[in-house]
Amino acid sequence: MPPRSTPSDPSDPSNPSPAPTRKDGRDARAPGDGNRLYLGDNLDVMRSLPCESIDLIYADPPFFSGRSYGLNPSSEGSQPHFRDQWPQGLEGYLAWLVERLREMRRLLRPSGSLFLHLDWHAVHYAKVEMDRIFGYDHLQNEIVWSYHSGGGSRRRYGRKHDTLLWYTASREGYQFNTDEVRVPYDAAIASSRRRLFHRDGKVDGSVWEIPRPPNHSKEWTGYPTQKPEVLLERIIRAHSLPGQVVGDFFCGSGTTLVVSHRLGRQWVACDCSPIAVEVASARLRQSGEATAQGGLPATQFIVDEGPFPEDRLPVRPPD
Q1: Domain CATH number, residue 294
Q2: Which tens digits make up the pLDDT trace of 187-214?
Q3: pTM here?
Q4: Closest Cα partner for 303 from 38, 121, 94?
Q5: What is the domain extent for residue 121?
Q6: Distances (CA, A) of 62 to 52, 170, 201, 316
Q7: Cα–chain center distance at 59
Q8: How far is the C-alpha of 73 from the C-alpha of 81, rounded, in Å?
Q9: How many independent structural domains does the chain possess?
């Protein structure tokens, strides 16, 4: 799949498209050549990928929460498999995050979108950095994901929402499939006026009421930061087309990957945690068996552990 910036017609055999290149000009394997799950530092992984090769990126990084996370509450704090703790404080966290957001911007196609998923801890600081990377006028929406579980307090209002910042690579011409996010109108429409309204409803607003997956649901894996499939399904349907490439470089339990396959998208993903890659791989295999029974091709993917470029940076701060 050649980058869209290639001037030649890829369908014309007399004008073959050049091989995709990495940021440093060397040949690179383009996303879309096969679903690939990387175990390692996402900065190294992204640097190995060609420019303008991904249509949609969903980024769910650490939130600057100051917590440690395990696969269940009893393991939290004792044997965590990742820590969202930053010895250099907010300044160190933002420096770590910005370096990765810049790479994501480079990877997006001109029609591509990036969804950055954070919460109250640091989203306002991250927005300022995203404005610098993408441009202030490339922010399309600040989306509130509202849920009812967790976050209760007697000292303040319950913290029951996350924030998703939707930025686009271009100010115009970005992918937005409005018919995928239509909801019923708030009030009944008189028959004499129905011709003035869309028959499938209005485009939904920027507050999304979507419950977290309960721990007794079929999709629940026990992964502490797992996001609901319904949330990712909405993003992927609205901002990509079948056959296009979705990227998730903090893939955790693999929700983005499972939903992308089910919707006919290709994907490239990464996590630095061996436990996350193990959980995501098992979930993909299980999901692949289910989709195969439903008539879709079984999930085909490769787990890649490198090698990556040697100038590695730690994907999370030292303990």
Answers
A1: 3.40.50.150
A2: 788 777 777 888 888 999 999 999 998 8
A3: 0.82
A4: 38
A5: 37-176+210-304
A6: 25, 27, 36, 9
A7: 4
A8: 12
A9: 1
